Each structure stands twice: as structure tokens, then as C-alpha cells.
Amino acid sequence: MVLGLAFLPACRQKVSAAQCEALITRYAELVVRDTMPGAPAQVVGEAQKRVREEAAGDENFRNCTTEIGPKEFNCAMAAKTPDAVEKCLE
Asked: Which of 3, 8, 21, 42 has the most C-beta neighbours closer than 10 Å?
């Protein structure tokens, strides 16, 4: 019985690639809203694209499907600021 419990952390559920994409989109949205309040839609769209590309290259996001579980995902998706998202993923 003890042996079985030792392997539980290794079997921890992870998020899907689609959830990782949603997380990156959410993060980009929050970053742009935080840094460019009131910016025109076109500027916001371009900035979100840039932030998404940067986030996709970040280690926290790049390893999303192997490192982030449902608890961290739900925390990050509910976050109201980019800093809060980052805190959820620590």
C-alpha cells in the first residue's frame, strides 16, 4: 500500500494543449490590458499577438502540458493580473 502512494505525485493530472493555449491567450490579454488601458482594438490585437509569442517561448508556458496541473490552471485562468497568473504558475 505504501509503495502505491509513493507514485501518486508522478501520476498527477496535467492540462491539455488546448488549455495551455487558453492560458497563454488569457495571459496576453491581461498583460495588454494592464499596460495599455484604453488602447484602440488594432493596437491591442497586435500587442496581444506579440505577448502570446513571447509567452509561448517562456519556460513556464513551454512546459505547460507537463508541468501545469488543473489547480494551477484554474488559478491562472481566474487571475485578474499578469502577476497573479505568474504567481499561480510558480
From this structure: 21
